[in-house]
Amino acid sequence: MTVSLVTGATGFTGGHLAQRLAQRGEMVRGFVRPTANATRLADAGVSIVEGDLTDPTSISTAVEGVDTIYHIAAVYRSAKHSDDYYWDVNVGGTERILAAARRHGVKRVVHCSTIGVHGGVNNVPADETAPFAPGDIYQETKLSAERLARLAFRADLRGVVVRPAGIYGPGDMRFLKLFSTIRNGSFRMFGSGETFIHLVYIDDLVDGMLLCAETDSAIGNTYILAGEEFVTLNELSKMVASATGAKTPTSHLPYWPLHMAAIACEGICRPFRIEPPLHRRRAEFFVKNRAFSIDRAKRELGYKPVVDLQTGIAKTAQWYESQGLV
Q1: Domain at 3-171+199-227+291-306, CATH homologous superfamily
Q2: Could you tell me the pTM of the whole model?
Q3: In the prediction, which pLDDT does 188 show?
């Protein structure tokens, strides 16, 4: 029986992937930090292996006897962490995972990167060949980690790189603020609102990752995984308003004061390792285009997103409401 390892298994994406694999009857290990709550994973039949991406010993223990690794874990965009921590976890952790995969003869590695490596794109829709333009430490380290993976996949490991778009769906918390502020009427659009955003529903993303693991012709390649459509922020806010029973936001404020406030917040909070209430990454949500082509994944993997954006937004809103979050 195939044994799969999912790093970051207590996260949104890793958790959905691990549980899907377990539902299919596979043997699944979840590599999780000792402080993480893995009860739901264990209840779903996932074997829990505690460790850390900075610890080669725990990584080796997790990888031994594994056929497929899905490397999802990373330090996400938290402004309270030092740059060195991002490099150690996102880049060093990937290097340690790849080394363990070589040592233990892993048959396939699916490495999760991000469309953020392209930064804000000018020519839309962009594809996998678009220029790299990382805009923050998270994107910089994800790009460096991806490069390590691609080098390994061209040399002595069999693997695939995936670059997901903005991941959303029931259980996600990153888009909660957008939904809640639109629902309570406090949301304000900064700038024109004509910036493009591209999302991928969690179930569609998991489908794409499984295709990457199972399609032999995908070996050594890189794929953008996203939904069928990208929309402007104005269009997205209208969808969220409709799904939450709120009025569509109509007011627009200039972007530059938000940008300056984000810089100030980071400067004040970061020395104290406090997560700032506002930082540049959140501010740039309003001005950086994210719009991509998924033609390569469709053509080479048979990838086909099945949840349209309006339906996905409605399902996400329903989950937030069921949890008392909006």
Answers
A1: NAD(P)-binding Rossmann-like Domain (3.40.50.720)
A2: 0.94
A3: 92
Q: How far apart are CA 314 and CA 309, in angstroms?
A: 9
Secondary structure class of 5 (helix, strand, coil): strand
Domains of the chain, by residue range, sit at 3-171+199-227+291-306
What type of residue is 251? S
pLDDT tens readout for residues 207-232: 999 999 999 999 999 999 999 999 99
Which residues of the chain fall below pLDDT 70? Answer: 77-80
Query: How much is the pLDDT for 314?
Result: 98
In this prediction, residue 245 carries a pLDDT of 96
Model pLDDT, residue 80: 65
- Give the bridge partners for 197, in sequence order: 231
Q: CA angle, 85 as apex, 81 and 91 as ends, to 5°? A: 130
* Environment class of 17 (CB within 10 Å of its CB; exposed 0-12, middle 13-18, buried 19+): buried
Q: Is 21 left (phi over 0), alpha (psi -120 to 50) or beta?
A: alpha
Cβ atoms of 133 and 118 closer than 8 Å: yes
Burial of 112 (0-12, 13-18, 19+ CB in 10 A): buried
Q: Which residue has the tokens 């909006």?
A: 326
- Cα 23 from Cα 25, distance rounded (Å): 5
